[in-house]
Specification:
Helix content of chain B: 25-40%
Structural class of chain B: alpha/beta
Order of helices and strands of chain A: EEEEEHHHHEEEHEHHHH
CATH topology of the largest domain in chain A: de novo design (two linked rop proteins)
CATH superfamily of the largest domain in chain A: Recombination protein O, C-terminal domain
CATH architecture of the largest domain in chain A: Up-down Bundle
Strand order of the largest sheet of chain B: 4-3-5-6
Order of helices and strands of chain B: HHHEEEHEHEHEH
CATH class of the largest domain in chain A: Mainly Alpha
Shape of chain B: globular
Number of domains of chain A: 2
Strand content of chain A: 15-25%
Number of helices of chain B: 7
Oligomer: heterodimer
Strand content of chain B: 5-15%
Number of strands of chain A: 9
Number of domains of chain B: 2
Radius of gyration of chain A: 20 Å
Number of strands of chain B: 6
Shape of chain A: elongated
Structural class of chain A: alpha+beta
Number of helices of chain A: 9
Largest interface: A-B, 36 and 29 residues
Chain lengths: 261, 198
Amino acid sequence: MLTKTEAIVIKSMKYGDTSKIVSFYTRQFGKLKGIAKGARRSDNKFGSSLDSLSHVALVIYKKEHRDLHLISQCDSIRSFGKIHDSIEKISVGLSILELVDHLAHEEEENPVLFSLLLETLVAVEKSSRNYQSFARSFQLRLASLLGYAPSLNVCSVCGKSLMEVEQSSALGFQLLSGAIICANCSKAATAKRGVGYTTLSVPAHRILQCFLTSGMESIATITYSESIGNELDETLRLYLRYHFDNMKDLKSTQIFKTMIQ
Amino acid sequence: MFYTAESIEHLAEQFAQLPGIGRKTAHRLALYVLKLSRDEVVAFAKALVDVKDKVRYCSICSNITETDPCGICSNPKREQTSICVVEEPNDVLAIEKTHEFKGLYHVLGGALSPLDGVGPEDLRVKELLQRMSDSVEEVILAMNPNVEGEATTLYLSKLLKPLTVKVTRIARGLPVGSDLEFADEATLSRALEGRITL
C-alpha cells in the first residue's frame, strides 16, 4: 500500500552499488526501515533528503509483515542545516537519534515521541548555547513517554513536597521506581539502599525537574557547572539502563566527547 | 550433494562471497569461466592474486598503490604545498579525473560516523597531522556532503587551524547539468551560501 507520512531520518547505510537502506522515525508508524533504490547515483531523485537528521515527507510502499519497505519518494521538509554547521550541535542531534534508534520499537506508533524529537531538533538548531541540555532533557522526556517518568516532586518516604522544604544535603534516587527520597528520609533510610539506589545533589535534582517541565525554548537558559552536567549524565545513564534492556552506552556520545575535548 | 561438478560448485561459492553476487549469478559466472580458454583463466587468477600480493597502502597518503610511496606522492611535478583530504581511494580517482588539482592527497579511510561507532582513532587523522610541515600551505577538505562528512570536516578544521595552515573545503551546491527547480532545499541553500562574486 502506498502511504505518506512525516519522518526524521535516523541513519542510512550503503546497499549494493547504488542503493541505501534508511532508518526513519515516522509520525504514523514509529521506527521503520526502507530501501531507496538508486539513492547513491548522482542523478538520484532523493537529493540530500536521506541524510541523518533530515525532516522529510516520506512516501513508501508499505507491506504487512515486512521489515524493509520500498521508498517511493522522500522530500525534505527541513534539513536542519544549522545543526550541520557545528560539531557540538551534530553531537547532540546524533546522540538523540541514536537514543531513539535504541529505545523505540520497530513500527510502534508514537506521534508524541515524534513531536518531541522534532521539537528538540528545532530547538537545538535555533539555540546558540547549552546544547547538551537538550540531549539530557530529551533522555528524561523520552523515558517518561515510554512509561518510566520519574517522580521528582514529592519524597516517596515522608510524602512532603520537595519544592517546599529546603534540602540540606544530597537526595536519594530509587532507579527502579523513579522515586526521590528527601535528604532527611535518605539519612534515615540507609538500610533500604542497595541495588538501584543512587544519590542526587540538590542542584542536579532541580535541573532534572526543569528538564521535565520547562518549555523547550527555556532549556538552553538553564545554566549549571560541568560537574553537575557530569552528574546528570551519569544519573540519566543509570536510569535508562535500569529500565531498558536494550539500552547501551551511546556510541555517538563517547566519540563526540573525544572529538570536542 | 553436488548437482554439477564439485569444482564448479566450489568456484560458485567463491563468487558468491563477492558483494552483490547471489547464488544464481555465481553459478552463471562459474559456468562462464568453464567456457574461457586456459590462458584466459590463468590470467584472471593471476590478476586476483596480484591484487592481493602487490597492492598496498602508500605510507605517506594512504592511497592504494603498488609502489611505496605512490605515484602521486613521489611525483616531483605535483605541488607539495597543498594536500587534498578525501574519505576513500575512489575519491582520489574522481578528483584526478578533473585534471584540476595538482597537489597531493591524504586518504582518511572513511568518515567519522558516530552512530556506527567510527571515531577519530579509526581514521588516519594522526598521519595527516604528522604531514603538516612548513611546506604545506593549504589543506583542502573534500568530504562527502552528508552528516558524517560534515562532522569530519568540522573536526579536522578544528585540529588543523591552530597549525597556521590555510584550511578550505570544496564547494557544495547544484550539480552541473541539473535543473534548479528539482534541487532540494538543503542543496539550494548550500548553493546560495557558497555563491561567488562575478
